[in-house]
Every structure is written in C-alpha cells, then in structure tokens.
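A quick aside before the break. I want you to see a complete sequence-to-structure record at least once, exactly as it would be stored in a machine-readable document. Don't worry about memorizing anything.
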Amino acid sequence: GVSANINEFVIGADGAIYIVTYDSIPVSEGVYDSRQVLYKFDSQGTMVYSENLTEQFKKELDSDNIYLRTMTVDGQGRCYICLEDFVMLYNEQGAYQGKIALADMSTGWVSGMGRGKDGKVYINILGTSSDGGNGSTLTELDFDGKKLGASYEGFSGGGNSSLGPGIEKDFLIFDSSKVYEYDLQTQTKEELF
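That is the input. The structure line, written in tokens, reads:
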C-alpha cells in the first residue's frame, strides 16, 4: 500500500493543521512513485482540502529531487512552503498562487519561517547579515506582491538558530545554547534562558 510520511506540519492561528506528506506509492513489484501532498484539517480534525504538490514542485525546481526546507501559514490561512531558494505560495483553499524568490543563497540557508503577532510571515536566513557577518536576517514575505518585504535588525541568534512562535512577543529564537524572545516593533531580542 501507500506509505505516507509527514515532511512538515504547522498550526494556523485558527487552530487548523497544515501538513505536507511525502507518499511512496507502489507501481509494480519493487517500483515506486512518489508524491508530496498539502493537507489542511480544521481545528476539529475534518479535512478541508488536499492538494497534490508534486508536479508544481517539479516544474519550479526543474528536478525530481525535491527538498522541502520549511513551511508556515499566515494569519489568513495562506500557506508558504520553502524549497531551495524560493518560497511557494498557496491561498486559503490550497491553490498555487506563485512564488517569492529569495536572495542569493550561495552563502546562506533558510533556518525557518514563522508567523508574527501581526499575522504576517517572516523568514530567517542564516549567513546573510546586513553587516556582512555570519549572522542571520529576518525578512517579511509579501504574499500579495510575491516579493521580499522589510528586513529587521537585532535579530541574529547566531549559529543554527531557529524561529518559533513567541509567547508575549513575536518570535522565539533558539540557538544551540540560549532561547530569546524577539519583538518586531522594537526590533530587539531578550534572552529568556
């Protein structure tokens, strides 16, 4: 039968769950086909939609080798899926809406994406700090304009920092040894522990 593995999942502001699976489908003895599917379940667990992403991924990457880096949803329930050096955009019903190209990724990599308290989505790119150092840059993703938005200062968590939803402020940043909370409005971080 079909073997489904969860690649990524995220919970929306309304409690909906978004999941991307990697499915292995037997075609014949020892031969398998694969697909990646985006599912949305409401807060009660009822499936809202499923969207096969495989062909769109292959078209955008011009390859069968697909690596999903991270995903998140904004306050409106629109899904952002990061592959290689761009973010693919899906509306509230799971329909593909285009992509946002990221900056030159030859010296950096995407550490994470997250939804701020304002409902907008932000991406953390490591190795691309504005001062030319090996820090990180937090940048807004503009769904409607299909482009990168404003970048924010004072964000760097250093090393392999990751981005998570904040408690009182917009984001939690956690690196190999500390956890910080970051505020978009003041563009400052505070060490929690």
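Two observations worth writing down. The chain has a mean pLDDT of 85. Residues 52 and 170 are 32 Å apart (CA to CA). We'll return to this after the break.
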